[in-house]
Request: fold
Amino acid sequence: MRGWYGSRTLASVLLCRQPPPSGAGAAAAAAHRRSPGAAARRHASDRQTGQGQPQAFDPALLELLVCPLSKKPLRYEASTNELINKELGIAYPIIDGIPNMIPQAARMIDRKAQDEEPKQT
Amino acid sequence: SAKFTPLPKMAASIGAVVCRALHSRRHGKFLSIGRGLFSGARCLVAEGETHFGFQTVSETEKGEKVYHVFESVAKKYDIMNDSMSLGIHRLWKDILLHQMNPYPGTQLLDVAGGTGDIAFRFINYVRSQWEHQIRQKLKSHQNLSWQEISKSYQEEELKLPGGSQVVVCDINKEMLKVGKQKAQHLGYSEGLSWVVGNAEELPFNDSKFDVYTIAFGIRNVTHIDQALQEAYRVLKPGGRFLCLEFSQVNNPLFSRLYDLYSFQVIPVLGEIIAGDWKSYQYLVESIRHFPAQEEFKAMIEDAGFLKVEYRNLTSGIVAIHSGFKL
Reply:
């Protein structure tokens, strides 16, 4: 891991970028033996403070996830922060950026409301 | 925070010495006193019933009880693992990763991966493999310009090398929450996803992953055969199934010591450290009920896996079972 950290400073010097502040870097290296570097942590913390709410759902997961019951793909509904299986009429909640794919946790979507939507749009 | 500091070196090295002394790589049938006593009990369960430790419960009850156990221990899970196993669990997990030997670009599904131990090790492993590859490349291309060299460093900053990805799936959202916090604390962000899901009904499509791991999780599943079938389904052809789980100790004398330690010391530690005697009583009982090495190997073969092998660690306290979808 020390080699990893050393190469990061080299890379940033080569790219004429600002190297991670040496004080923070040394403290980070001392405190966490397995840290991949101060830059990654700053990146993660920037993402956290940038958003008002807890981390949003990662759309890349959508390619992998399917409904555990029917194994069909799901649709991400940003307004309610849920993953919807339209066929079965159920919605899986996403809490703190972690989708809950347990069938018992899923919510039944009101069929009437679903039918009205295409008429409105 | 105190939770995430590494185990004091001395305790870990003592553990390592003990572990190496007892490490056994031999396959084959092993009889232990413990197994003899409890194998009878396993046959006495009625239809629709299963074991929760030494109690007999209905299958639906088991799922709920297991959920509550892990909900209550989630925050102290890592500390308890270190105390109960004297830090040896870290070695077991390291050995699992070495056996997996993932290359950059591997897609890993870690089931019952809760607090992320396997996932973080996977990320470290592929990163160091990548570094190794870069160093080899640089050694043989001494005439690269500085711009080219810096470019090769630039690519690896944004994503995991080769597009490696690990999805951590667990039925318990408390365990995943702890895992996610740990990840943020330790600086793991790219290539890592967290999903609440049931091992018996995975929310993933067929043939998606290169490796499926389940470490210390499968004994808590109500229908192990269903979990194995799901594992087979989500693996790509050529994919590997790896299971790290408590198993039956092969040495009779050591087995007695192990039983003593399990039933007298571990629940007490559970009470002192986590304030939860019952959950750790469940833990040691569930270990006794889990099938032995050969029986579990047969179950894995039943699910369709080929070239199924197992390897005992620490004299059989723990075993790594491996199979391939071919």
Summary: Confidence is low (pLDDT under 50) at residues 1-43 of chain B.
